[in-house]
Amino acid sequence: MNMAERQNGKILEVAHLSTDFQTEQGIVQAVRDVSFHLNTGEVLGIVGESGSGKSVTMLSIMGLLSDNGWVREGSVLFDGRELSPVGLAGQELRAYERKMQGIRGNEIGMIFQDPMTYLNPVLRIDKQLMEPLILHKRLSKDEAYKQAIKLMEMVGIPSPERRLRQYPHEFSGGMRQRV
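The structure assignment produced for this chain is given below.
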């Protein structure tokens, strides 16, 4: 997809997504037949009652379901590429996970509602912010450090050089979300 097509087209298209979980009580259908699309340059809010499947829908799109969960049916097109693992097993499933590791954090990301659930409390902010830059952007440690400072400045975190050496509990909730 070239830039002109991308600007006028759908960057994310979810069609008939259904996600299940195996529990001790049997199979739970957590997401049933969810469809939506997002055009380039748009913002989409997913709202609903607690337990309605908002988070599971996003985890399904990102390929981040727990071991007892799977996408039963549906399609997830991101930038023209199919991301749904429906029907994959063995080698195909391992290839899917490798593909998603290259996409997650590099091209698509998820900002969790509670920042303390995704920041490791025993690791400093620099380690957690620099790691994806090193892995996904293939930056050196020095380049990743400089980029981390720039990113913190971009989201309005004061004294980024000092803040990078701190731990998540030393940040406000809003600052943790921005990290």
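Interim note for the steering committee: The first strand starts at residue 10 and ends at 23. The chain has a mean pLDDT of 88.
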